[in-house]
Amino acid sequence: MKKIFWLAQAAVFYALTLIAALLPAAITYRAGALAGLLIPRLIPKRQAIAVDNIRQALPFMKAHPLWNSPCDDAQELARETFKNLGRSLMEVCRLYHGRGEDVINSIELRGREHYESARAKGKGLIFLTGHCGNWELVALAFSSLFGEGMSVVARRQNNPYLNRMVERMRMRYNSTVIYKQGALKGILATLKKGQLIGMLADQAVFREDGALIEVMGRTAWASKAPVVIAQKSGAPLLPTFIHREGQRQVITFYPEHNFSGDMSDEGIQRETQALSRYVENYVVAHPTQWYWVHRRWKRAGEISDAA
Predict the structure, then answer these.
(1) Residue 10 above 90 pLDDT?
(2) What are phi and psi of 300, to 5 degrees?
(3) What does the pLDDT look like over 179-198, one tens digit per residue?
(4) How far apart are CA 11 and CA 223, in angstroms?
(5) Which residue ranges make up each domain of the chain?
(6) So what's the pLDDT on residue 286?
(7) Which residues contact 67 (CB under 8 A, 6 or more apart)?
(8) Which tens digit of pLDDT belongs to each residue from 78-103?
(9) Is pTM, for the whole model, over 0.90?
(10) Would you say 37 and 83 are in contact if contact means Cβ atoms under 8 Å apart?
(11) What sign for the dihedral angle of Cα 150, 153, 157, 160?
């Protein structure tokens, strides 16, 4: 019975993404925004989480020097967040079905010299990012932009048919997945070959996998994996983010992060905090382009996390 359900789910996914991909490119931006507005109606709990997260983060963001948003209403910021999610989904659908050249061609690169400097070291390269903008596009577009693919760390889909479909899509763009379970060995092997790894490091983790830090003025658990992997491998770590400017995408490479070399618990915590600041700065500068719908502060003692 489960197999039938999984097959049906994969078929529906394929059909919906194909319909989205076949829409004329000229209306993708507007259609994506409309699709995004449907998300809160389908999963209202996620809208409530996004609004609550934004509301609690607003005092910190408004006091930050990078804050430049004309809007400080949590409801409106959440609404724009879902519209951007819808646009990103529409773009990924086009890429999934091989119709996304216009999406890739819309990308502007900033800070390319930081990428080239880190790449020249020949030790592999770790891209540190978060669920920011169209984060999927970074890995999928990399082969077209630089002639080499990127491996990303991700969770395996419960539905094996859906998982296989996503894998095939990634392979089309010379992008591969290293699954989280037992990922350390695969990541280190990839870096040892001088290849590229993309890591999303902005979600809550369990105590045994993380360090307790501050995120936008609130206590949160953060993955210490990027710190440990960078130190073990010796590979440069490059904070890299994508954001949307109208119908154009901008990928920004920041300078390589310099580690202190202190691998004590306190040293790892300090470095984890430092890496989190890159994501934090992004969120403040682009408050409607982060994935507010997850409970970033759960398991860290926040009362609201129980909801």
Answers:
(1) no
(2) -110, 20
(3) 877 788 999 999 999 999 99
(4) 35
(5) 2-306
(6) 98
(7) 61, 284, 285, 287
(8) 999 999 999 999 999 999 998 989 99
(9) yes
(10) yes
(11) positive
Residue 232 has pLDDT above 50, yes or no: yes
Average pLDDT in the chain: 92
- The letter for the amino acid at 211 is A
Candidates 222, 192, 203, 95; CA nearest to 154 is 203
